[in-house]
Amino acid sequence: MLNSVITGLRISIASMVICVGGYASIVWAVGQTLTPFTANGAILTNESGQIIGSRQVAQAFTRPEYLWPRPSAVDYDGAGAGGSNWSPTSDMVRERGTALVAAHGATPDNPLPADLATASGAGLDPHVSEAAALYQAARVAEARGVPIAQVEALIRGHATSPGAFLTGDRIVNVLEVNLALDRM
Amino acid sequence: MALNAILVVILIVGGSALMSWPLGRYMAQVFESAGTGRFDRAFHAIAGRPGDEAHDWKRYVFAMLAFNMVMFTLVFVLQATQQFLPLNPDGMGAVDPTLIYNTSASFTTNTNLQHYSGEATYSYLTQLGGLMWLQFVSAATGIAALVALARGLAGRAMGNFFIDVQRAAFLVLLPVALIVAIMLVLLGVPMTFEGAASAMTLEGLQQTIARGPVAAFVTIKQLGTNGGGFFGPNSTHPLENPSFWTNCIQMMSLILIPMGCVWMFGRLIGRIRHGAVIFAVMLAFLLVKISASVWFESAPTAAFADLPITQDVGNLEGKEMRLGATTGPLWAVLTSSTSNGSVGAMHDSLNPLTGLMPMIGMWLNATFGGVGVGMINMFLYVVVGVFIAGMMIGRTPEYLGWRVEAYEVKLALFSLLAHGMFILVGTAIFAVTPWGLEALNNTGPHGFSEILYEFTSASANNGSGFEGLGDGTAPWNFFTGTVMLLGRFIPIILPLAIVGSLSSKRRATESTGTLSVEGGVFATMLAVTIIVVGALTFFPAATLGPVAEHVIASN
Q1: A57-79 as b/e, with b when 16 or more CB fall inside 10 Å?
Q2: Considering its fold, how many domains does chain A have in total?
Q3: Which residues of B fall within a CB distance of 8 Å from A31?
Q4: Which of B177, B189, B308 is the closest to A108 by Cβ?
């Protein structure tokens, strides 16, 4: 018995050194050398060096002159991510949907894109569909006093296909578009 | 199903299947080079005095339990003392003792059920040195157990656990993990020891952005069918899974080694065609579940039925835009078929019938299954299937020339039924007591599903959850922790005992009267056994949960 435990401890120490220390160090070194920006969390700063967020992580936008992200079950808490975990048949999802329909001013003739009415898995989804971004172009343009065509062109310029031909809908990064809007 | 959804399924499942063939051959080589290779000398040196290579099943099991006890204890101590140890830039504090028990059991048993949120509970040292370490060695334990089973069936001694577990960790898991982790970090998954970033958003709000050594962790989480995420919401988190391409790599990593294990098994028993038949049966079940699940999830969010919200994109609750519409249901099936338990969408928010698919996956727990142990579970179905078939055709049931008798079948059925008992009894207790009822995030049938899912996940050593469930309480921690330990070690120990018993008999030569284990008849028999024994046990529970919810929602 004691022999087996000692053998187990020896293997534990060896595997901690190799599979944790060695492995993690190599991956860390590769990331910090070749892709330091994303390896450190895609942190964005403004001209004065102040951190304004992560390109990968949604942040709250409620002012009319910005694109709004998808709703977040954790209020965009980057240190406590999570989804709503509500059943898609539940009254809670319906109530939140109703509130968002009102906030975006959706009507049966101009229905709200579903991604703007549903919370993402982590509550930090940095993207909305291109359709959901264009849906907000009129509000943004009016709040900024610019022609809607200009906002739409900017959104289209930022739209990408996440998986090339393997995915259907194009998406835009909300924070990147909002930064571009501020620079416009 | 849209064309691009079909292409994604073909890419992920087909690509993994193709790569599993050379991987299985490599794995078989690793374990057949007994005592000769340059690495094996190092492994003997590391182990000290590991004993010889000719252990019988009892000594093999004993060594495995001793090592797993050491694993459990070390990580228990590490969690309990993390606040005094280094690599804790965000100042994570003391952890509740029942949570420490649950987490130690969870990661030792390759389950990775998480009654905590990583970014808010554990230091980088606990995450890497404790949990990620267990992700390597618990997966290695599973592979070693399968190797012993296969050697026994081939009529050889089972080998030496202490050497096998090192071969699995250092020669199988580590090299594959290095390749995948480097791909992930290059594609944008973070790998840093900096603490959380503090940001001032464009609208002037404070936002704390947790980060960490994610890439290394996520890789072995996927490859070792562990499933425990670095962040609470697992691979839905944009830093854990930043793009469609990291998502594809993670999904393939999830199923690759379980597939490779089947080929390795076929080679180690010297019957590669038998391995191919088992592979085909597993693949058939997998594809049925994937098709059903992608189809069910293309229905729009039911709660929006008469609201002015678009209804043409499927249910997006709990899903991420960058990962594509197929990811949620496809990942749900892959992760539950393989006892992985990571998620690419929130399972609690899947459409009711889609949510049933991962439950079925975990109830069967053998359509590829966990690394090593999935194939071991399938072996139990094979034993039962061979026995029933033998009775039907009036021949002495034989498997690979070994006579299967009442004793072996009793052990196999006990092991299979224990799984059902843990799930159904546990669910029943929590469904009528405040322990369960006060933890619910949804009401009605969906609330029942949350409890059912949690016990299913614990017993299947899966680790995913209907995460709305408030399961961070002492009763949940204690009961699921214990179910995980039983659900892990019973289906490893009993199959090895079966093989120990089989291989103590005289081996018969197979004749034309023997049921061939390499053809369509055997495949059909196996599939029927899986459905009857594995699935029907749970039919009433499925009716009370997801099926009832679906029926109510569609009326």
Answers
A1: bbbbbeeebbbbbbbbbbebbbb
A2: 2
A3: 185-186, 190-192, 215
A4: B308
Whether B42 contacts chain A with CB within 8 A: no
The answer to whether B111 and B142 have CB atoms below 8 angstroms apart is no
A72 and A11 in a common domain: no
Residue A28 sits in the same domain as residue A62: no
Q: Is A99 on the interface with B (CB under 8 A)?
A: no
In terms of domains, do A19 and A54 share one?
Answer: no
- Domain limits for position A16: 2-39
List the alpha helices (DSSP H) in B338-372: 352-364
Examine the domain organization and report whether A59 and A127 are in the same domain: yes
Whether the predicted pLDDT of B52 surpasses 90:
no
pLDDT in tens, B434-456: 999 999 988 899 999 999 999 99
Residue among B257, B282, B296 nearest B378 (CA): B282
A28 and A84, same domain (yes or no): no
Closest CA–CA distance from residue B41 to any residue of chain A (Å) = 14
Same domain, yes or no: A171 and A112: yes
As a whole number of Å, the CA-based R_g of chain A is 22
What residue type is A129 in one-letter code?
A: S
Window 149-208 of B: residues touching A by CB (8 A cutoff) are 162, 165-166, 169-170, 173-174, 177-178, 181-182, 185-186, 188-194, 196-203, 205, 207-208
The answer to whether A39 contacts chain B (CB < 8 Å) is yes
Nearest to A101 among B309, B311, B442 (CB): B309
- Of B219, B553, B195, the C-alpha closest to B354 is B553
Q: Do B349 and A24 lie within an 8 Å CB cutoff?
A: no
Which residues of chain A make contact with B170, given a CB cutoff of 8 A? 15, 18-19
Task: Write the pLDDT tens digit of every residue in A137-175.
Answer: 999 999 999 999 999 999 999 999 998 888 878 999 999
Q: What angle do CA B393, B394, B400 make, to 5 degrees?
A: 75
CA B445/CA B504 separation, integer angstroms:
49
**pLDDT tens-digit profile of B271-318?**
999 999 999 999 999 999 999 999 999 999 999 999 999 998 899 999
* Distance to chain B for A149, nearest Cα, Å: 23
| B417 neighbors B380 (Cβ within 8 angstroms) | no
Write down the H helix ranges in B109-173. 118-121, 124-125, 133-153, 161-166
Q: Which residue has the tokens 């182990």?
A: B47
Chain A partners within 8 Å of B198 (Cβ): 51
